[in-house]
Amino acid sequence: MAFFKIEYNSKALGMERQVNVIYPDATEISADEVTDTDIPVLYLLHGMGGNENSWQKRTNIERLLRHTNLIVVMPSTDLAWYTDTASGLNYYTAIAEELPQVLHRFFPNMTQNREKTFIAGLSMGGYGAYKIALSTDRFSHAASFSGALAIGLDGKNPADIVGESQAYWQGVFGDLGNSRALKEHYLTTLAERSDKKTKFYAWCGYEDFLYEANEVAVEKLRAVGLDIDYHNDHGKHEWYYWNQQLDKLLEWLPIHYVKEERLS
């Protein structure tokens, strides 16, 4: 496979941005899977403290995908929660709307077919994956690992759960005391407006500090009509467990995922 580090100018953010892309190598894929058009794509979103390098540095993603015809896009939102922030930085627009257009200029054979376009993320990126999938008509499958899915849904202040100051959270989501404005960022609000066509996957470990929040969020999102394949097991808020879930995600997606041990 090939690994690309791309720097481009984001008009949405008014700055230079970086994105990493894993691109399948035709010499490592079975002949019946090789194609120069309509290659499936997975957007992988990082959590707080991460960036576009996190998945490549912390997981076995390159080994897992060695024999699979799938493009993987790894952008960065910094600490902006994949949101057009109250402080005026349009990270949602930059990633959900602008980035796919930019990448199609670099990779014109990347699919534009909704059924072959997927998104997933961990922690903050789990929230981002659900948010972007629910707010666009671009993704057929979306997944969250230890996701911060309950922002606003569990009645708790995010500063008391995830940390950071009130000023930080208000810089992202706006006045936390303005319930009407804050509800615009709730996943349930976005789910109620969505077409309910996207299939969702969620995992959270029993020992994860976001476990109870995931229980609340999944229940409420299912209540408004989302199709969520929800899983739990022992595990903390750590890369060891997210690496395992990455393998399970690739098996869940509607792609021809070829593990190395399956090869003769």
Structure description:
The protein has an eight-stranded mixed beta sheet with strand order 1-2-4-3-5-6-7-8, with helices on both faces. The protein is of the alpha/beta class and 264 residues long. The chain has a single domain (2-262), classed as Rossmann fold (3-Layer(aba) Sandwich). The chain is 33% helix and 20% strand. Helix 4 (124-135) packs parallel to helix 8. The protein contains ten helices and eight strands. The two termini are 20 Å apart.
Radius of gyration: 18 Å
Structural class: alpha/beta
Outline: globular
Which strand order do you get reading across the main beta sheet? 1-2-4-3-5-6-7-8
CATH homologous superfamily descriptor:
Alpha/Beta hydrolase fold, catalytic domain
Helix content: 25-40%
Percent range for β-strand residues: 15-25%
CATH topology: Rossmann fold
Assigned CATH architecture: 3-Layer(aba) Sandwich
Number of strands: 8
CATH class: Alpha Beta
Count of helical regions: 10
Characteristic terms for this protein:
10 helices; 8 strands; globular; eight-stranded mixed β-sheet; alpha/beta; Rossmann fold; 33% helix; 264 residues
Sequence-ordered SSE layout with sheet pairings:
Elements: E1 2-10, E2 15-23, E3 41-45, H1 54-58, H2 61-64, E4 71-74, H3 91-106, E5 117-122, H4 124-135, E6 141-145, H5 158-161, H6 166-173, H7 179-183, H8 187-193, E7 199-205, H9 211-223, E8 227-233, H10 239-252
Parallel strand pairs: 3-4, 3-5, 5-6, 6-7, 7-8
Antiparallel strand pairs: 1-2, 2-4
Helix pairs in contact: 4-8
Summarize the structure.
By secondary structure, this protein is of the alpha/beta class. The chain has helices at 54-58, 61-64, 91-106, 124-135, 158-161, 166-173, 179-183, 187-193, 211-223, 239-252; strands at 2-10, 15-23, 41-45, 71-74, 117-122, 141-145, 199-205, 227-233.
